[in-house]
């Protein structure tokens, strides 16, 4: 702690991202990265703009990318916002759309960046406990609030709500913004973007990091009523007018245009996830129903922290959250078939 820090900085508790270890021959299943590379068309698009044009600023409004996303989801370009990863998009949402003086509602087991943003922007958090089966209790969200946010599928549980359940939450809070964080939606849930034209208080955020294999490119988006998008644009243009560089803009647009590659890789992940779930259950694990590219599991006889350490000693990395209610769970990213096989072999050795 430095004497030059402001009191505001001293009190911040920052987000801790998943470990990015620098080890050889590692099976890395801890940060929910896609096991398959990005579309070849994405790489071609990025290569095509690595020329003298990099001396110029990128398009500040990302109109071409917004148009592509709008076409993909059958909305208007004015309903689309893009930013430097969905975390930046969410930061602008917290800053510009949630009301101060009233609590922000989100699940007690959820994305751990939400309380960090509450601290950063002076928002009162109110966590609502998941049910015993780790599902979101819809009725609990029908209470006074300054906003609501939840992932769908939820993270780290992987459990998804139906569109009808999401609609119940949105309908119960017509005077505050409801944000559905869809980082993992393409692996088994239905996007709530189909609801945005009916509900002016609904905003849906997504990421290209997971299903489109572009975690290293940092592109996120939001879709909602044009008035909500305008608020995000005002925040963005008061902070950084050029959040996406030329490479990111070109690569993201190409990713949305290559539907065949997107479908083939996400279906491969879904198939591997289901196969992995069956193998883990055969080893005695309880596996929560997942609509994401990871599984959330616990073993009745084995301590999760000890399992995580034992796997690490065999050069397999998974995520362990030492937090109340989930300290006996491991979150396991779906890898390539070879990586998944190594995980199962390592667990068989430990068990």
TrEMBL record:
Gene3D superfamilies, sorted: Aspartate Aminotransferase, domain 1, Type I PLP-dependent aspartate aminotransferase-like (Major domain)
The record's keywords, sorted A to Z, are: Amino-acid biosynthesis, Aminotransferase, Histidine biosynthesis, Pyridoxal phosphate, Transferase
Which family does this protein fall into?
Belongs to the class-II pyridoxal-phosphate-dependent aminotransferase family. Histidinol-phosphate aminotransferase subfamily.
Q: Which InterPro entries match?
A: Aminotransferase_I/II_large, HisP_aminotrans, HistidinolP_aminotransfase, NHTrfase_class1_PyrdxlP-BS, PyrdxlP-dep_Trfase, PyrdxlP-dep_Trfase_major, PyrdxlP-dep_Trfase_small
What are the required cofactors? pyridoxal 5'-phosphate
This entry's Gene Ontology molecular function terms read: histidinol-phosphate transaminase activity; pyridoxal phosphate binding
What is the species of this protein?
Halopseudomonas pelagia
Tell me the route in metabolism or biology where this protein functions: Amino-acid biosynthesis; L-histidine biosynthesis; L-histidine from 5-phospho-alpha-D-ribose 1-diphosphate: step 7/9
Give one GO biological process term. L-histidine biosynthetic process
Name of the protein? Histidinol-phosphate aminotransferase
On subunit structure and binding partners, the annotation says: Homodimer.
**N6-(pyridoxal phosphate)lysine is carried by which residues?**
210
């Amino acid at each position: 702690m430095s004497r030059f820090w402001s009191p505001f900085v001293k009190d911040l508790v920052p987000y801790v991202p998943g470990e990015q270890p620098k080890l050889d021959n590692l099976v890395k299943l801890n940060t929910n990265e896609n096991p398959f590379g990005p579309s070849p068309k994405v790489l071609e698009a990025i290569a095509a703009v690595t020329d003298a044009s990099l001396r110029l600023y990128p398009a500040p409004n990302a109109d071409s990318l917004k148009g592509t996303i709008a076409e993909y989801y059958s909305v208007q370009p004015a309903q689309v916002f893009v930013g430097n990863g969905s975390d930046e998009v969410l930061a602008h949402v917290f800053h510009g759309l949630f009301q101060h003086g009233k609590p922000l509602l989100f699940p007690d087991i959820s994305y751990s960046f939400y309380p960090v943003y509450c601290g950063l922007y002076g928002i009162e958090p109110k966590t609502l406990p998941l049910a015993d089966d780790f599902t979101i209790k819809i009725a609990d969200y029908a209470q006074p609030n300054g906003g609501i946010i939840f992932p769908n599928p939820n993270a780290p549980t992987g459990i998804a709500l139906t569109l009808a359940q999401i609609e119940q939450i949105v309908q119960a809070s017509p005077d505050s913004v409801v944000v559905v964080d869809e980082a993992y939606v393409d692996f088994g849930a239905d996007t709530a973007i189909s609801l945005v034209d009916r509900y002016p208080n609904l905003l849906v955020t997504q990421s290209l990091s997971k299903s489109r294999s572009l975690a290293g490119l940092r592109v996120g988006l939001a879709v909602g009523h044009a008035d909500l998008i305008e608020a995000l644009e005002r925040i963005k243009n008061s902070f950084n007018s050029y959040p996406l560089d030329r490479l990111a803009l070109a690569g993201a647009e190409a990713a949305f245009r290559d539907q065949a590659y997107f479908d083939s890789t996400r279906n491969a992940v879904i198939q591997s996830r289901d196969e992995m779930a069956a193998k883990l259950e055969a080893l005695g694990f309880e596996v929560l129903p997942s609509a994401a590219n990871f599984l959330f599991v616990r073993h009745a006889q084995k301590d999760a922290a000890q399992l995580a350490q034992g796997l690490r000693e065999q050069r397999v990395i998974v995520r362990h959250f030492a937090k109340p209610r989930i300290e006996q769970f491991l979150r396991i990213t779906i890898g390539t078939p070879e990586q998944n096989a190594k995980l199962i072999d390592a667990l068989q050795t430990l068990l």
